[in-house]
């Protein structure tokens, strides 16, 4: 089992002829993902790593039963690309691009809600269900199938933690990157709810960071969960008012501090690791191993 994407996901790559789109298409194919088509206006008839290229999403959807799309489009074009995919009936959308204009992000999320589309990102590393499929830019080699769900705001931290889990014999059911921008599709709470309902997921790792209140909102849901949650938070030494890498990682008006998040998560029953390499042992303990 997995959440959101699995071995049956049929994938479209928007921006497939670009440098990033082409490279990561090759990596997704190497992982076994069912990448069946790409879109790059004006490039119809070409192929990229054996994948046919179309001018429009509508043309690709006519040819293949596409269920998910991943977007490698420069920020100014992301809104049009996302609307095109959603209008064509695609129900899962992964937006890798960062620095998408804020108003465009708001428009994308509003339309996604209307169309009942799941948006992962913008500014995400993507999503992977180990041993089944991946839509993203994460390294192929560090994941292994298993019972631990991972949901993260940070890509590099999630790689480190997934690698530590794998090295400790703790495989992953699905690893989800929410995205680091101010406005993103899925929330921690929504992903936690999916893991709670997934029979193959026995424990969950939450990788958060300073800024915003997403972790505090997640803590309210964690109180009701039957599955153990282990958290790690980045930004313990970040000064207020300074953005730390992600647009969403900024402490403003005293809210979104490291300590407020630790306090909320601990009170909800989550175990909070002080260092990334402590996560695996806490997961093992929480699963009673």
From TrEMBL:
User: Gene3D superfamilies in the record, alphabetically?
Assistant: NAD(P)-binding Rossmann-like Domain, Succinyl-CoA synthetase domains
| One term of GO molecular function | nucleotide binding
- Assembly and binders: Heterotetramer of two alpha and two beta subunits.
- What keywords are annotated for this sequence in UniProt? Ligase, Nucleotide-binding, Tricarboxylic acid cycle
* Record lineage: Bacteria, Bacillati, Bacillota, Clostridia, Eubacteriales
Which pathway is this protein assigned to? Carbohydrate metabolism; tricarboxylic acid cycle; succinate from succinyl-CoA (ligase route): step 1/1
- UniProt name for this protein: Succinate--CoA ligase [ADP-forming] subunit alpha
Name the species this protein comes from: Desulforamulus ferrireducens
User: What Pfam families is this protein classified in?
Assistant: CoA_binding, Ligase_CoA
The job of this chain, per UniProt, is described as: Succinyl-CoA synthetase functions in the citric acid cycle (TCA), coupling the hydrolysis of succinyl-CoA to the synthesis of either ATP or GTP and thus represents the only step of substrate-level phosphorylation in the TCA. The alpha subunit of the enzyme binds the substrates coenzyme A and phosphate, while succinate binding and nucleotide specificity is provided by the beta subunit.
Q: Which GO terms describe its biological process?
A: tricarboxylic acid cycle
List the SMART domains hit by this protein, alphabetically: CoA_binding
Please name the gene that encodes this protein: sucD
Coiled-coil residues: none
Return the similarity comment.
Belongs to the succinate/malate CoA ligase alpha subunit family.
Q: Which residues bind substrate?
A: 159
């Amino acid at each position: 089992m997995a959440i959101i994407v699995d071995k049956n996901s049929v994938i479209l790559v928007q921006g497939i002829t670009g440098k990033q789109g082409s490279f990561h298409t090759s990596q997704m194919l190497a992982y076994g993902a069912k990448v069946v088509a790409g879109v790059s206006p004006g490039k119809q008839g070409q192929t990229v790593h054996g994948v046919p290229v179309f001018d429009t999403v509508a043309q690709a959807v006519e040819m293949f039963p596409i269920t998910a799309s991943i977007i490698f489009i420069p920020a100014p074009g992301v809104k049009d690309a996302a609307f095109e995919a959603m209008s064509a009936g695609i129900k899962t959308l992964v937006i890798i691009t960062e620095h998408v204009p804020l108003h465009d992000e708001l428009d994308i999320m509003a339309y996604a809600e209307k169309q009942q589309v799941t948006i992962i990102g913008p500014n995400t590393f993507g999503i992977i269900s180990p041993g089944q499929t991946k839509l993203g830019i994460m390294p192929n080699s560090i994941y292994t199938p298993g019972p631990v769900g991972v949901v993260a705001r940070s890509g590099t931290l999630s790689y480190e933690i997934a690698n530590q889990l794998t090295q400790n014999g703790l495989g992953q059911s699905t690893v989800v990157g929410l995205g680091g921008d101010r406005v993103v599709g899925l929330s921690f709470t929504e992903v936690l709810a999916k893991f709670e309902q997934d029979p193959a997921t026995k424990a969950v790792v939450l990788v958060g960071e300073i800024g915003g209140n997403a972790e505090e909102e997640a803590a309210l849901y964690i109180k009701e969960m039957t599955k153990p949650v282990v958290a790690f938070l980045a930004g313990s030494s970040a000064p207020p008012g300074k953005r730390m890498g992600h647009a969403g990682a900024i402490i403003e008006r005293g809210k979104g501090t490291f300590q407020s998040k630790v306090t909320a998560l601990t009170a909800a029953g989550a175990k909070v690791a002080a260092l990334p390499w402590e996560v695996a042992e806490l997961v093992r303990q929480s699963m009673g191993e």
